[in-house]
Amino acid sequence: MKEIETMSKAEWQVMRIIWTLGQATSKEVIDILERKTDWKSATIKTLIVRLQKKNFLKAEETKRPYVYKPLIDEDLAIHQSVNNLFDNLCCMRKGQAIKDLVQNSEISQSDISDIVGALNAKAQTAPEEVECNCLEANLS
Amino acid sequence: MKEIETMSKAEWQVMRIIWTLGQATSKEVIDILERKTDWKSATIKTLIVRLQKKNFLKAEETKRPYVYKPLIDEDLAIHQSVNNLFDNLCCMRKGQAIKDLVQNSEISQSDISDIVGALNAKAQTAPEEVECNCLEANLS
DNA sequence: ACATTTTGTTTACGGTTGTAAACTAAGAAT
DNA sequence: ATTCTTAGTTTACAACCGTAAACAAAATGT
């Protein structure tokens, strides 16, 4: 009884290639991943099949070789994954987790300005302290 | 051949309680999680056992009922999980992912300042653009 | 047309996770 | 001491995941 499909680590690698190329044949995906990883082509085929079953990819089957296209937007997928993970965290600690991410990620000047902008907006209504609700019955 | 143990979603819930309390008996954990979720006590016992096998928890077995204590620091666990997820992402998109997180998380005033501070430091050396390496053979 | 190569489909297998019952041992109550 | 209750251990089972071989169908080369 799973409500929302999630993407496994290996599946992410496949999707990234297809998102970046816009679309791709299995050969393209396999060539790239055989350079990035030590996966066998059979493994990569399995991942493509699973991504289709999960409705993250579709195959254009009008002619061979099939062309695979994403069915989910990359930014949406990122949004869902990241927020899904943050749901696990104590809300009191999310701020520091974000700071840690900032320090450990390469970020462009324009993204930095963007994030600062978002933070300034946030500061208008942000609380002095965020309460930990790890022991509360309450959802989230 | 798994190098680093990961914490599953359900296991996170257990750890959060024990981190917040500092230590806890199984009864305490079960009482709290039975209010937060619809898990049976048997399920929660299983999670506690698995967390011990993964070395995230240890039981103080000197007297009954056992007292369970965390073997991993909460901030370290968060750091590992979050960075592990971010490793899946196209590096070009991490900035926007962080912005999205900022917008969707409750963050305290002091954490906001902290993050802004980190961003300002980052801006000293940040590149104009971050290159996508989704198709590169290169690690990461 | 037939052999070979490429690409897609099916099957496989061990480990993890969500979910939990059953069993056992140790405390508590009478 | 015997029974009830609580807490810890063992077993279970289906879905998902990493990993891949085997098989089938289509395209390509000769």
From TrEMBL, chains A, B:
Keywords: DNA-binding, Transcription, Transcription regulation. It comes from the Bacteria. GO terms for biological process: negative regulation of DNA-templated transcription. One of its GO terms (molecular function) is DNA binding. The keyword RNA-binding does not apply. It holds the Pfam family Penicillinase_R. The keyword Aminoacyl-tRNA synthetase does not apply. Belongs to the BlaI transcriptional regulatory family. This is Transcriptional regulator. It comes from Companilactobacillus bobalius DSM 19674.
